[in-house]
Amino acid sequence: MKSITILIADDEAEIADLIELHLEKEGYRCIKVADGQEAISTVQSHSIDLAILDIMMPKLNGYEATRQIRAQHHLPIIFLSAKATDLDKITGLVSGADDYVTKPFNPMELVARVNAQLRRSKQFNQPMQANKLALEAGGLVIYPEERTLFLYGKPIELTPKEFDILYLLASYPKKVYSAENIFQQVWGDAYYEGSNTVMVHIRTLRKKLGEDIHKNKLIKTVWGVGYTFNG
């Protein structure tokens, strides 16, 4: 059975050691690095199942490291940062992270979040008959297995969470999802700031889909209720 390898990228050695201690108790193998550039190199040279990244790191910050990792890999990423405002968390999630934990943190809570992200990743990557079928609507074609999509034949680059939101809505056209429901299904959590996070993701998703120039909006707002796919 393949062992699960987790990357810990933090320039504070004491924190990295603490995380490693608790994750190894769970049976995970850990690789520790101290800067963003080394984090990218490690993901490229090793089989990493999940990454825990600090945001304020030397050489390359967590945002940029995530952007470069996301260009080629779809592993779960958890930000661990002392930046603790709601805006910081939203920025982290919008930049491509799957979860955001603030310092100081409870090591057992972090382990629980790691376990949750790995479960979700495993469930999504299991081959299912439904995943082999492309979704087509309103000039949009979504290939869930490859996690790619095309709008009128043009490829559209989305972050993992933007893709998950769009795929969720497109899978059940006309069904209305509240922001809280979207957050719970896509992130697998129930943050009190979830509504704002979903709103920001929907806004950037609409911009990438060109809804400011196309008359037929694919994502429709049902005021006071939530969002629905209008393909």
From TrEMBL:
Designated name of the protein: DNA-binding response regulator
4-aspartylphosphate modification, residue list: D54
UniProt organism field: Paenibacillus nasutitermitis
Lineage: Bacteria, Bacillati, Bacillota, Bacilli, Bacillales
GO BP field: regulation of DNA-templated transcription
MF GO annotations: phosphorelay response regulator activity; transcription cis-regulatory region binding
Residues annotated as domain Response regulatory: 5-118
Keyword Transcription attributed: yes
UniProt keyword annotation of Glycoprotein present: no
Gene3D superfamilies: 3.40.50.2300, 6.10.250.690, Winged helix-like DNA-binding domain superfamily/Winged helix DNA-binding domain (1.10.10.10)
Subcellular compartments: Cytoplasm
Keyword terms of this UniProt record: DNA-binding, Phosphoprotein, Transcription, Transcription regulation, Two-component regulatory system
Entry-linked Pfam families: Response_reg (PF00072), Trans_reg_C (PF00486)
PANTHER family for the chain: REGULATOR OF RPOS (PTHR48111), RESPONSE REGULATOR SAER (PTHR48111:SF2)
CDD domains attached to this UniProt entry: REC_OmpR, trans_reg_C
A GO cellular component annotation in the UniProt record: cytosol
Taxonomy, superkingdom: Bacteria
Gene encoding the protein: vanR
DNA-binding region: 132-231
